[in-house]
Design goal:
Layout lengths: L2 H14 L2 H8 L3 H15 L4 E3 L4 E3 L1 H24 L8 E7 L1 H18 L3 E7 L6 H4 L3 E5 L8 E8 L1 E5 L1 H7 L13 E4 L7 E6 L2 E6 L4 E3 L2 H9 L4 E5 L4 H5 L4 E3 L8 E7 L7 H15 L6
Helix pairs in contact: 1-2, 1-3, 1-4, 2-3, 5-10
Length: about 300
């Protein structure tokens, strides 16, 4: 068995989500792909993939082996590039994920600058308001705004943001400024449902996080629309501080209930390969980390 071919085939199956797609990508027959993976599993003595009629996914052991294979193959590529003198020119495809609004405001300018610097790289951006599985969706780099659970991913902190309640000066002048979270039922509430559909906001009081039940007049899946409604004077919205930095600066929105805000959320750039990251990944990380750490609204 050709070990490298087996590793490449297995990685392609995982990243393609199936044998048929992997066969097309590798330009070999479906039967050959299936045989290579079967032989690899027999050689290792473990099941690497769970196969159903609709989906092929790595087992827990397979996911770990996938990460190891991906790192080994990346190191081989790097060694070949260094030997041929092409090490200084990142190339290939890079996949990046972030939330929709953060992706538009911060990541897109970084990607454009990166592409201008490195014309041999193509970038695929997945901007979506949900947690993305790096293995399932073939992601190289992500930006996450949350407390990170323990994982094999490498994380580099670049800033933090607050969870703020805001409203327009016109709304507050007409309806009053809430002094505590207990005042919220008397106000018009705009809720964003992209992350949680629960009709409640949690606040810090007496050293503990306490939920406040809400009866939202408006529920929306996007922060953009919640911010627009708040700027229009419709009610109170809860968003992340970076999302309304411009509106706060020019006075279109004001923050309320600041004394009850939860602890700030960390922003991390995350990736998979650690110090063995491919050159295309390292080059993007360097640019993204420098740029995000310099952004005033993320500090």
């Amino acid at each position: 068995m050709d070990r490298l071919q087996a590793m490449k085939t297995f990685v392609t199956v995982v990243e393609s989500g199936g044998f048929t797609a992997a066969a097309r990508k590798l330009d070999i027959s479906l039967s050959v792909v299936s045989r290579i993976v079967t032989d690899l599993e027999a050689h290792l003595g473990v099941r690497l993939l769970t196969r159903t009629t609709r989906l092929v996914r790595p087992t827990d052991t397979g996911a770990t082996y996938y990460e190891d294979c991906r790192r080994i193959l990346a190191e081989i590529d790097e060694a070949e590039l260094a030997t041929t003198g092409a090490h200084a020119a990142p190339r290939g495809q890079l996949s990046i994920t972030a939330s929709v609004l953060f992706g538009r405001r911060f990541v897109t300018p970084i990607v454009v600058e990166y592409l201008r610097r490195y014309p041999e790289v193509d970038v695929h951006c997945l901007f979506i308001d949900r947690i993305v599985n790096f293995v399932d969706e073939g992601i190289d780099v992500g930006i996450r705004i949350c407390e990170l659970p323990a994982s094999s991913l490498q994380a580099v902190p670049v800033g933090h943001v607050r969870r703020v309640v805001c409203a327009s000066p016109a709304y507050l002048a007409q309806h009053g400024v809430p002094a505590t979270p207990a005042d919220l039922p008397a106000h018009t509430v705009i809720q964003t449902t992209g992350i949680s559909t629960l009709p409640e906001w949690r606040f810090l009081a007496g050293g503990e996080m306490t939920p406040t039940r809400l009866a939202p007049r408006m529920a929306t899946t996007t922060n953009d629309s919640a911010i627009a409604a708040a700027v229009d004077g419709f009610g109170l919205a809860r968003v992340l501080s970076y999302q309304i930095a411009d509106e706060l600066r020019d006075g279109r929105l004001q923050v309320v209930l600041a004394d009850f805000e939860p602890a700030p959320l960390p922003i991390n750039v995350i990736h998979r390969e650690g110090r063995h990251a491919m050159h295309k990944v390292r080059a993007f990380l360097d640019l993204a980390i420098e740029t995000l750490r310099a952004a005033p609204s993320l500090r």
